[in-house]
């Protein structure tokens, strides 16, 4: 934790503490709004039985994916971008990449499901809507497909140590091989 708050002064591309503070305040405010807004959506839909509609199940799923992205990915990536170092280790590098891909694909697939649901409601207004059980099954499939799509991150995410002139630190790389190595080898 000390390395996150007080990084080594010999790092290249180090931002002055004033800029880090400004970015930290701006990012902290955005993160607070994202987390609190999604928690409010969760509380409203889960806590009030009258809000448990088909459309709100999709919105609940979007909110869960966004909350997971905010809590498990954004904070750590912000620290990495601020310090140009990944102090969280190889295990969390893998989890971080996996969760980022899962939550983004879950959001996209959920939006597709919402679009399809709205299409059916508009084109066939007299047709019976999907049941809650069917929507839960669709959302389960959304998470399953998202996890399958992000599975390579569990297998190939790693941290690499690159040595610069005055710096030795871990770089956060999505994949061990490929063009990402060339981009991050400064």
Give the structure's gist in a few sentences:
GO terms for molecular function: tachykinin receptor activity. It is a multi-pass membrane protein. The chain has 186 residues and is mainly alpha-helical.
Describe the structure.
Its main location: membrane. One of its GO terms (cellular component) is plasma membrane. The chain crosses the membrane at residues 22-46, 58-82, 102-126, 138-158. One of its GO terms (molecular function) is tachykinin receptor activity. InterPro entries: GPCR_Rhodpsn, GPCR_Rhodpsn_7TM, Neurokn_rcpt. The protein starts with a helix and ends with a helix. It is elongated and about 65 Å long. It contains 6 helices and 2 strands. It has a two-stranded antiparallel ribbon with strand order 1-2. A hairpin with a 4-residue loop joins strand 1 (158-163) and strand 2 (168-173). It has one domain: Up-down Bundle (Rhopdopsin 7-helix transmembrane proteins). With 186 residues, it is mainly alpha-helical. 70% of the residues lie in helices and 6% in strands.
């Amino acid at each position: 934790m000390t390395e996150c708050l007080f990084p080594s002064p010999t790092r290249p591309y180090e931002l002055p503490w004033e800029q880090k503070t400004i970015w930290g305040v701006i990012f902290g405010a955005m993160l607070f709004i994202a987390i609190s807004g999604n928690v409010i959506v969760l509380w409203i839909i889960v806590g009030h039985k009258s809000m448990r509609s088909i459309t709100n199940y999709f919105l609940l799923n979007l909110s869960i994916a966004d909350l997971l992205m905010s809590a498990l990915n954004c904070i750590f990536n912000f620290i990495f971008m601020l310090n140009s170092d990944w102090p969280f280790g190889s295990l969390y590098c893998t989890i971080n990449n996996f969760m980022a891909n899962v939550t983004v694909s879950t959001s996209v697939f959920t939006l597709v499901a919402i679009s399809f649901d709205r299409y059916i409601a508009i084109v066939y207004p007299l047709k019976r809507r999907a049941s809650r059980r069917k929507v839960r099954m669709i959302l389960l499939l959304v998470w399953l497909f998202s996890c399958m799509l992000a599975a390579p991150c569990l297998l190939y995410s790693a941290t690499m140590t690159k040595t610069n002139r005055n710096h030795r630190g871990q770089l956060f790389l999505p994949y061990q091989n490929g063009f990402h190595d060339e981009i991050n080898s400064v």
